[in-house]
Amino acid sequence: MANPNSPSVSVFPGFVYDSEKKRYFAVTNGDSTFNSQYSNNAVQADLRREKFSTAKKEKEDAESRDKALQLNKHLHMLPRYPENLLTSLKLGAVQMSYFQWMLSFLKSCSKQIMRDVSLWPYPADSMNKPCEFIYFKPSTRSVGTAKLPLKKNGLLHRYTTNTPSVLLSGFKTPSYDLIFCGGHQQFQCVNHYGELTELDQDFLTMSRDPYNFIDKHGDKQSEKINTFETFAFSETHTYFFVSDAILKIETAALSNSVKDLSTKRLAIGLGNDLPRDAIADGDLVSFIHSSSLKIVKQHGGMLTLYLKEAPIYHFRMKSTSHSDIMIFAIVTRSSVEIREFKLSSQAWNGIIISLPIENHNKARPICFLHKGVLVVEEDSGHFLVIDLERRHSARCTSRAFASQKLAGEHRVLFDENSAIYLSSSSDTWLFR
User: Fold this and answer.
1) Which of 61, 183, 326, 405 gets the most CB atoms within 10 Å of its CB?
2) Taking the model in full, what pTM does it have?
3) Radius of gyration (Cα) for the chain, nearest Å?
4) Is residue 81 one of the residues assigned to a domain?
5) End-to-end Cα separation, the chain, in angstroms
6) Is 22 a member of any domain?
7) Which superkingdom is the protein from (predicted)?
8) Does 275 fall in a domain?
């Protein structure tokens, strides 16, 4: 066949030359919509490339005009080339993200109720098994450990509590296995032998002000602590939050069933507002106080982050890509604020990301952090899902959660099959 690039060869009417395949293709035109398109693969491929290039340019132009969208582009876009991401996961180049799994789970899960059982998690530092939790049965006041998923004899009784209100936690190491139970006027600690260590209001009041306290039958008046049910635990220390200080006790000492415990008083001057939502994994203690987030520094002193709106919850996790970075997520009634905290310098680091919460109408929305993915309830059954490490976010609707009614505090737990347990003070709902 003659070379079409030769000046002596004229272009054949009705044909087009494909330089890659080095041959001619017929071009047909007709009256119908179908026949009006070119019938050969080479021409159609050129049209598709041109159409894609035009659409891509129009999209980039639109995004460049919207500065807010351009700034937060990485928050609402999924990773490009997911097949390459999967290969990187297999090679260990990047950590697995549960972002897409969580979206799929919320959309498709169903629920069932387990009555008369309340579940509580262990702190992050605890060495308990991933499927092991603490339970409380309101009907019998029984407290012990539970293994999920719950089976016929899945509750292991430890002791019976007499506290009027219950706030549970625990800690497990190779040396001791403790369950903590707090109420308005007392704090109980039970080791794996069932031996009880009980701290009453007088103990904490004297620890707070030992020079102005005789005893509860004495004549000298001392300002009592009204409540101390806000506490947090780490592997090394237990922290009791009172009105103007944090009392620090060695966690291991609580396992000896003795009452002559030594305390260290960290003066912080909190005033009348009680601290709440305390986290103490490792030696870094953080908690919410009024309209601020406070961090007790590892070497003394306190760092206060003042917010425009009072926080409801705060979550934190160590970065999987930077061991010196702790990622904080602060949930308010109108937004989720994501910040980075540098552990070596004990200071905030990097840029601040704020994502709006839509149609929020609950005092205590369902919020939880699971394997780097933060889930925040915006309205009944409507959720904002955020990958804190990669900064991706998406919204989804869950029919199973839409009918869920919770009036007070709640906890969210996971078993080894990744089922979700939503637990209140009296009942637990299983989502799977």
Assistant:
1) 326
2) 0.72
3) 30
4) no
5) 67
6) no
7) Eukaryota
8) yes
